[in-house]
Every structure is written in structure tokens, then in C-alpha cells.
Amino acid sequence: MSLVDGIKDLLFPARCQGCAIQLDHSRRPLLCSSCLALLSPVTSPLCPCCGIPFPSGQDHLCGDCLQGRFAFDRARSIFLYREPIRSLLVRFKFGGKLSRLDTLTALATQAGTATLFAEPDLILPVPLHIERLRSRGFNQSLLIARSCFPHWQKKIRTDLLIRHQATTPQTSLSGRARRNNSKGALSVCRPNHFIGRHVLLVDDVFTTGATLHECARVLRRAGAGEIEAFTPARAL
């Protein structure tokens, strides 16, 4: 730590972005030891398709994936959607606390996010409808993509997958309603651009997988090859 950083820590002490307790450092991730201990990494055994973890045993397809529910080939998340990850994402996404992104990025880097996927041809953040984008002021999926995959910045595109229909926020819906909410709301521009391409979708939370499925479905119709998906968090 430099002298300047030490003075900053003394004059403006950082606080844990999970529980708000004062920290003795300003290194990312800004989480105290107690909040770090609460993190729940997603590890094997899990479903090799949707990535849902199992309590024991070996990797195997879950019931949904055995039935072919999802149009993507593989989805991976790094943490379960529990504290402190839940608070970080909620304050970032709905509270406009963009400083939380630095902590999420640090956690993603430590978790080896960049090693989860082979290099894609395209990285597509899940799009927001223009009205919600104007209201929120940013697309959280785009910021996550830029932060978690800095070595693939040039592959990130926001002009190829669009949400042309406004939908009800997923957080207010049940599982079945979530699955119906995104149907028909997304489309692709320049369909020929996807033929045979390896695409990585990026969103914030995998809940039912409905939004990622709909994105993958329209990409599949456009001729995309392998389709993978990344979210920092996964709900159970």
C-alpha cells in the first residue's frame, strides 16, 4: 500500500459493502471477514447444462435439462444468490450504487471467471428495453460484461440483441410467470451475423433461466453455434 492510500484509509475509512462495518483497508473486494465467510461459491457437483449445484454426488443433468428446457448449451455462475452477494447486486442494480461493481469484479477475478469459458466470438449482455434503460441510466449486464471479461472487451456487442417489448420486472413474478414474461420480447439484428458463431450471454442473476433461455432461443433461430451464459449469481 502506498503512503497516499494509507492516508486515504485513515481519513476516509472504507466500509464493508455487505454489512457496512468499518474496514481497516480499501482493497477490493470491500467486504469484512465475516461477509467473506458468508460467500457461497457454486462448485461441483452441478448440472453441466444449467449449472444448478447439487448437495452431493457427481455432475449430472437436472430434471429441467433432461427435458431440454433451455436453448443455451451451458450456463455458469460463481456464487449463490445469498448474502452478501444479494445486497451487492440489489444496491448496484436498483440503487445505482455503481461502486459495488468493483467488489463484484474483484470477487469474479478471484473466482477465476475468465477460465470458465473458451474464447467466444461475441459477448452479448442481456438487453434492457429502452424505457427501462432511460429510467435506470445503465444496463447492469453490460457493466458486468465489461468488468468480468476485460480481456474480451472488443467482443462485447450491444447492437445485435434487442428487447423490443417492455416486460414486467422479473423480481415481481413467480417462476411460471417469469418463464412467460420474456417470450417474444427479444429479437436479433443482422441475423446472418450469428451463423455458426460462439456466443456468450451475460446477465446479473440466474433465477429460473427464462430470460437467458429466450435470448438463446432467438439466437439459435438466427443460426448461432455454441451458446453459453454467465451470471455472477444463481438463485436456487
Description:
The protein is α/β, with parallel strands linked by helices and 236 residues long. It folds into two domains: 1-38, no CATH class; 40-234, Rossmann fold (3-Layer(aba) Sandwich), CATH 3.40.50. The chain is 31% helix and 13% strand. It is built from nine helices and seven strands. It has helices at 3-11, 33-38, 63-66, 85-93, 100-110, 130-136, 140-148, 175-181, 210-221; strands spanning 74-80, 122-125, 161-163, 186-188, 199-202, 205-206, 227-234. Strands 1, 2, 5, 6 and 7 form a five-stranded parallel sheet that branches. Strands 3-4 form a two-stranded antiparallel sheet. Strand 6 (205-206), helix 9 (210-221) and strand 7 form a beta-alpha-beta unit. Helix 4 packs across helix 5 (100-110) and helix 5 crosses helix 7. The longest helix has 12 residues, at 210-221. It is globular, with a radius of gyration of 18 Å. The model has no long low-confidence stretch (mean pLDDT 91).
What is the topological layout?
Layout: H1 3-11, H2 33-38, H3 63-66, E1 74-80, H4 85-93, H5 100-110, E2 122-125, H6 130-136, H7 140-148, E3 161-163, H8 175-181, E4 186-188, E5 199-202, E6 205-206, H9 210-221, E7 227-234
Parallel strand pairs: 1-7, 2-5, 5-7, 6-7
Antiparallel strand pairs: 3-4
Instruction: Report, as a whole number of angstroms, the end-to-end distance.
Output: 39 Å
- What's the helix count? 9
Succession of helices and strands: HHHEHHEHHEHEEEHE
| CATH architecture tag of the largest domain | 3-Layer(aba) Sandwich
User: How helix-rich are the residues, as a percent range?
Assistant: 25-40%
Number of strands: 7
Q: Under CATH, the topology of the largest domain is which? A: Rossmann fold
CATH class of the largest domain: Alpha Beta
Mean pLDDT: 91
C-alpha geometry: globular
Which segments are poorly predicted (pLDDT under 50) over 5 or more consecutive residues? none
Number of domains: 2
Beta-strand fraction estimate: 5-15%
Q: What structural category do the secondary elements indicate?
A: alpha/beta
Largest sheet: 5 strands, parallel
* Cα gyration radius (Å): 18 Å
